[in-house]
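Troubleshooting log. The previous structure file for this entry was overwritten by mistake, so regenerating from the original sequence record. Sequence copied from the archived sheet and checked twice against the printout by T.R.
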Amino acid sequence: MNAFKTGALLALLMPFGLLAEPNNWERFRGPNGTGKSDSTKIPTTFSPTDGVVWKVALKGTGNSSPIIWNDRVFVHSSEQDGTKRYLISLDATNGKTLWTKEFSGAKAKTHVKNSLASCTPTTDGERIYNIVWNGEEISLFAHDFNGKEVWKRDFGKYVSQHGPGHSPIVVNGKIIFNNDQDGSAQLFALDSKTGKTVWEAPRKAFRACYSTPLLNKSPEGKMELLVGTTAGITSYDPDKGSENWSYTWSFTKSPLRTVASPIVAAGVVIACSGDGAGDRHLIAVRLGGKGDVTGTNLAWENRKIFPYVPTMLSKDDFVFSVTDKGMAMCHIANSGKEVWTNRLDSPVTASPVMIGDNIFAIGEDGTVYVFKAQGSFQQIAKNSVGEPVFASPAVANDKLFVRGKEHLFCIGKK
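Regenerated output below.
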């Protein structure tokens, strides 16, 4: 089976609970955005020199996560002075750069913890799809695996006080892109071969959000696309763009920004929002229904303790989270009941990943905390990559890929 057919098959199977191939991490937070890998061969103890298969200095800088397809790694980056953006292809086995595509750009304002290259690419095994912000406007590019441009879609001016950070996904031959900005919001589905619009759905606009959609098998047995932003949570038909149901967020103050991506666990979809001032709001909405389910489907909510930027993880009836200030927590997914909390030593911006039964959470200082995904806190390792980390890691080929401020690390058994 060729790479594209494999990718198309995986796109159909993943929403129904089946696992993707272990050598692919094709989007932000991997297969269907779960942040999970079944690998049992990645070491829990390592250092910048021990347990590192390879380490390479990346051209430019950025908070975009790496993605992996078979023996290829793809990374989005930007020059420090903002004059250029890059899409870089590396050999996953040794870190050697295979090709680099350059895009013109300019310096522009971002949040202190954001970057000019924070949008994570996605791939279907045939093309790489990447959002590029030139400091004023955004475009979505498609390149083949040899670095040749296949198509480009311009989406015009991008307005956000914090810069970019939204990432596309591939769903059954369509590129889903939530173009959420300050003052405007539109959900697009583009043909993966041509870049032409298949469907588009206007959304209520508040503030720019960076959460990435995911797929879910609805209670009726159909595939649904779940989108969580400041507007709330909406379920769409991924083939037609029609709305199945929606839940509208209710804020006590001004609308909060949605950065972390939603997750599904134990019959609820959970979304987090927040603000730099410290305000937080989590909603857990029961799946299913039709139309506006705001008054009926709220399972639980919390306005105090949950993350703003890092996305949560789920396992069985538990949801695990690591907050921006470095608090690791476990709660019951369908009720919000606290199971345990434990403070880590570093603030956290990168989303944690679950590898087997272990959670890997990486602090902004490069410390990698490894603890059990279970109903009691048990830290089993504390490592360091030796430099700051703001990008969420990737897992493929029985390796952990960590993008630091200056280097890309491949961690595993040699």
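The radius of gyration is 19 Å. Archived copy saved in two places this time.
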